[in-house]
Amino acid sequence: MKRIKVSNNVIRRMPRYLRKLDDLNAAGIERISSGELGRQMGLTPSQIRQDFSCFGEFGQQGYGYNVDALYEEIGNILGLNKGRKIILLGAGNLGMALVKHLSFEAKGFRMIGIFDKNPKLIGQKIHGIEIMPESELESFCQKNKPDAAVLCLPKDVVEELGDRLISYGIRAFWNFSHYDLGLRHRDKGTPIVVENVHLGDSLMTLCYQVNELDEDE
Fold it and tell me: What is the pLDDT of residues 187-198, one digit of tens each?
């Protein structure tokens, strides 16, 4: 399938479609119209058709979408079948929770290494993966060539560490620190992709929305 430049808004809706289709599969629903899919997701049928048209034609007029086939197509669009290699830096509470409770393989990544500076954590295993000292990071990356890194680290260490990881060949980051990693490196022309995750921002947004409810009453 020929890839075209697609807006981030469309890309960010693809996982939502995938979750909904997974629910439909579990409910034994084999096909669904754009109208019904839109009703269940709070989107218009035309929005759904426009989103899918960025990648090809998946539905049939008068029939709708085959749930199984569409699920597979969206998984291919997102590249979930490629099994990209990923490492985790920072095996504290957040890092451990991510590895224990998030199915990385179902989301397109294979966790191959976990690193931390805390000597009390070195040698422990999470889901069969041994926590290694950060001093072994360079040699590990040279040998295993991970595609991406999860950063569960304090803000003050991420800038320097990001430079190192990029020099080791890593070009994608799922960043839970409070340092917006992509800004400086994009300015330098380094081709990287970054998902900066700010859980606190989401919670503050919820706080605003709760306050708005009170104002409306």
Answer: 556 678 999 999
Specify which residues 126 forms β-bridges with: 129
Token digits of residue 65? 């979408």
pLDDT exceeds cutoff 50 at 50 = yes
Residues 6+ apart with CB under 8 A from 202: none
- Alpha-carbon distance of 114 to 88, in angstroms, equals 5
pLDDT at 57: 75
Residue 91, number of CB atoms within 10 A of its CB: 23
**CB under 8 Å, gap of 24 or more: what pairs does 145-148 form?**
145/85, 145/169, 146/85, 146/86, 146/87, 146/112, 146/113, 146/170, 147/84, 147/85, 147/86, 147/109, 147/171, 147/172, 148/84, 148/85, 148/86, 148/87, 148/109, 148/172, 148/173, 148/174
| Torsion angles phi and psi, residue 127, rounded to 5 | 50, 40
Residues 6+ positions from 37 with CB-CB distance below 8 Å: 17, 20, 43, 45, 48, 65
C-alpha dihedral sign at 133, 137, 140, 144: positive
Residue 198 class from Cβ within 10 Å (0-12 exposed, 13-18 middle, 19+ buried)?
middle
Q: H/E element holding 75?
A: helix 67-78
In this model, does residue 27 exceed pLDDT 50? yes
* pLDDT value for 47: 94
